[in-house]
Design goal:
The chain is of the alpha+beta class. Helices cover 40% and strands 25% of the residues. A four-stranded antiparallel β-sheet has the order 1-2-3-4. A hairpin with a 3-residue loop joins strand 2 and strand 3. It is globular and about 35 Å long. The termini are far apart.
Length: 110
């Protein structure tokens, strides 16, 4: 029981850390991509390298030299729009250093 409580506490701390990093990424962004349709994203960023549909979520992945830019869209609404995005390095880890965030946005022409 003690291990379960420690595990839950760690998960909560990890979720908080991820939320803080994604918030930092959005603060650095010079362009608001939230609430954009797929067509609008294609005009702004271009075609994604990967499109994945999984139940009610569509994930778009844009690859650059040093990062992966993920956009998540809700498919359960009439016109799906970007509801969340995050930047990850080539190892799949969230990017949290400001200069790396800025570099990723530049590489993806944002």
């Amino acid at each position: 029981k003690k291990k379960i409580l420690v595990g839950k506490k760690q998960i909560t701390q990890d979720k908080k850390r991820v939320s803080e990093m994604v918030l930092k990424q959005k603060k650095v962004a010079t362009l608001n991509l939230l609430d954009k349709t797929l067509s609008e994203l294609n005009q702004i960023i271009g075609q994604p390298q990967l499109v994945r549909k999984d139940r009610q979520t569509m994930t778009l992945r844009y690859d650059s030299v040093s990062c992966r830019f993920f956009v998540f869209m809700n498919l359960s609404v009439k016109t799906p729009r970007a509801e969340y995005y995050e930047l990850r390095n080539d190892l799949g880890e969230l990017i949290d250093r400001q200069k790396d965030i800025e570099k990723c946005f530049r590489e993806n022409r944002l």
